[in-house]
Every structure is written in C-alpha cells, then in structure tokens.
Design a protein that fits this description.
Layout (H helix, E strand, L loop, with lengths): L2 E5 L3 E3 L4 E8 L7 E7 L6 E7 L5 E3 L7 E5 L5 E6 L8 E8 L13 E2 L3 E6 L1
Parallel strand pairs: 2-11
Antiparallel strand pairs: 1-3, 3-8, 4-5, 4-9, 5-6, 7-8, 9-10, 9-11
Length: 124
C-alpha cells in the first residue's frame, strides 16, 4: 500500500516562502509521476506542479510558474515544493499525489494515490 505524507505547511506573510515535503513509502517510485494540487475555499481542486521521478522534468500551473519549484531528493522517496513570493490567493490545502502511468498529468482524476494534505495560510 502506497502512502504519501505531506508536511511543511503553515502560516506565512504575503511575499514569504515555505517548503512543502511529501514523503512516500510502501512502493517504488523511480518511474512514477508526482504532483502537487491545492484546494482553496470555494474553488475546485487544481493542479500546481508535477515532476517525473525517472526523468526529472517539471510542469507548472501558470499561476505559480516562475515563483515555485518542484523537486525530489536523490533517493526519489521525497518530493518538495519550494513556494516563494507567496500571495493571499495561494491560501489552500496542498495535496501530494502519485501517478503510476508514465507521463505528466494535470487532472486529479489522473492520479492514483493521495496524501492527507497540509494547510497553507497567507496573510496580507
């Protein structure tokens, strides 16, 4: 059973930074796509960033492109989301997800495993 556990969420002032972590266990992830999604109040769950664990190519939503960076450690068991220049509209619960089929995907329905989420609040 694959398990994903997010951490690193918290409260930050606008313009500040956070780094989210996603620790994976219970499976082999060298060929899996990993992604970050967020769910803000009154909005649908939306794609934030994705990364191939085997090729290390990345993909970002337009809303975070240039501000945030997705990466993974050398063992491919932890995925990070470096969040810089946070804005009030970034306030959301952030979820880590894993996709077993190769290829970057941006829809929640295309991912197979999910973490419990970590809460990020951004104040003005």
């Amino acid at each position: 059973q694959v398990q994903l556990v997010e951490s690193g969420g918290g409260s930050v002032q606008a313009g500040g930074s956070l780094r989210l972590s996603c620790a994976a266990s219970g499976g082999t992830f060298s060929s899996y796509v990993m992604g970050w999604f967020r769910h803000a109040p009154g909005r649908e769950r939306e794609f934030v960033a994705g990364i191939s664990l085997s090729e290390d190519y990345t993909y970002y939503a337009d809303s975070v492109k240039g501000r945030w960076t997705i990466s993974r450690d050398k063992a491919n068991d932890t995925v990070y989301l470096e969040m810089n220049n946070l804005k009030p509209e970034d306030w959301a619960v952030y979820y880590c997800a894993a996709r077993v089929v190769p290829g970057v995907a941006t829809s929640p329905e295309e991912y197979d495993y999910w973490g419990q989420g970590t809460y990020v609040t951004v104040s003005s």
